[in-house]
Amino acid sequence: MAYQAEISRKNPGCFLFLVDQSESMEDPFGGGEAGRRKAEELATILNKLIHNLSIRCAKSDSIYDYFHVGVLGYSEDSCKPALGGELSGRSLVPISELANKPLRIEERTKKSDDGAGGVMDQTVKFPVWFDPYSKGGTPMCAALKEATKITQAWCQEHPNGFPPIVINITDGEATDGDLVAEARKLAAVSGEDGSVLLFNIHLSSTAGPSIELPGNGNKLPDQHAKQSRGKPWHTRPKSVVRTRVVSCFWWTSRSRWKTLLAAERLADGRPRSWRRSSTSSFTI
After folding, report:
1. Which residues neighbour 128 within 8 Å (Cβ) at sequence distance 6 or greater?
2. What is the domain range of residue 154?
3. How far apart are CA 132 and CA 103, in angstroms?
4. In a domain, 39, yes or no
5. What DSSP string describes 24-54?
6. CA 276, CA 259: separation in Å to the nearest integer?
7. Model-level pTM?
8. Would 235 be classed as within a structural domain?
9. Is residue 7 situated within a structural domain?
10. What is the pLDDT at residue 184?
11. Is residue 258 part of a domain?
12. Is 150 helix (H, G, I), strand (E, B) or coil?
């Protein structure tokens, strides 16, 4: 049975994020704070995710390489690695190296419990690996092609590992070709434990409740989401164990960003013995 491999330092997991950086990502995010752009919200979430993964892979004074993580940005006419600083140009980076080489450390303010039933502002350190960017078109096919090359190399190097998980995050539609054909090529990449798992997350400017693994597109409030949902990317939306490609759409209306990822589940304190069962529990 596929998708049963243990996640360990010997057989690490792989997360590859494909990030839409087209001009439309400058638009407001329907589920964010007033004035927040999609690109800004996405960058904040990805940076939080990388930070949380680093913390969960920490053992005493070391960070164990349970995962390799990559971020590809696509805009204008190309797709390229989107991590900055010392990691610039790298497609995949071990989590220990990623944790130790942020682009910078910022100070940000967050709301915290004041211990008396109220809230107070608290200044926290916030590592940044990925900055928001938005320009030009949406070469999503180029991103899927690059992801195919990267995951093929990964599966050759880790033939017995858990298959790579690729998450495409976009607010629109491809402007450079047949998206479904490239998605199927990516989903056909495989190792001994199964083929690549490909997720699509749609960001909308329209406020509304989060929608997870919809059975049909009737309730999707955004036209681009409906168009993407209409493409034959998935076969069994409630279980990804035997599914190569799953199309997922999620947005929220109250500054609450949920992401359909396996990251925190995979890193949840037991990476050596973790077993995957169903996509329905993949929530961060």
Report:
1. 43, 47, 102, 103, 104, 105, 106
2. 13-108+118-273
3. 13
4. yes
5. GGGSBPTTSSTT-BHHHHHHHHHHHHHHHHH
6. 17
7. 0.77
8. yes
9. no
10. 92
11. yes
12. helix
State the amino acid at position 207 in one-letter form. Answer: A
Structure tokens at 58: 């920490």
User: Which of 187, 282, 190 has its CA nearest to residue 233?
Assistant: 187
What tokens were used for 74?
A: 């696509």
The amino acid occupying position 61 is D
Contacts of 129 (CB under 8 A, 6+ apart): 46, 47, 50, 71, 83, 84, 85, 87, 98, 102, 103
DSSP 187-255: HT-EETTEEPEEEEEE--SS------S-SSSTT--SHHHHHHHTSS--S-TT--TT-SEEE-----SSS
Query: What is the per-residue pLDDT across 134-184, written as a single tens digit (0 to 9) for each?
Result: 999 999 999 999 999 999 999 999 999 999 999 998 887 788 888 889 999
The answer to whether the CB of 276 falls within 8 A of the CB of 241 is yes
Q: For position 62, which CATH number holds?
A: 3.40.50
pLDDT at site 246: 36
Total number of domains constituting the chain: 1
Cα separation, 11 vs 22, in Å, equals: 35
Identify whether the C-beta of residue 146 lies closer than 8 Å to the C-beta of residue 82.
no
Kindly report the average pLDDT of the chain as a whole number: 76
Given a contact cutoff of 8 angstroms between Cβ atoms, the answer to whether 146 and 109 are in contact is: no
* Helices and strands (H, E) in the chain, number of each type: 6, 13
The residue with tokens 């989107």 is 82
**Crossing angle of helices 140-157/179-187, nearest 10°?**
10
Q: What tokens does 233 get?
A: 């990317």
β-partners of residue 15 are 69, 165
Q: Note whether 201 and 259 are within 8 A (CB).
A: yes
Distance from C-alpha of 45 to C-alpha of 274, rounded to nearest angstrom: 24
Lowest mean pLDDT among 68-82, 152-166, 237-251: 237-251
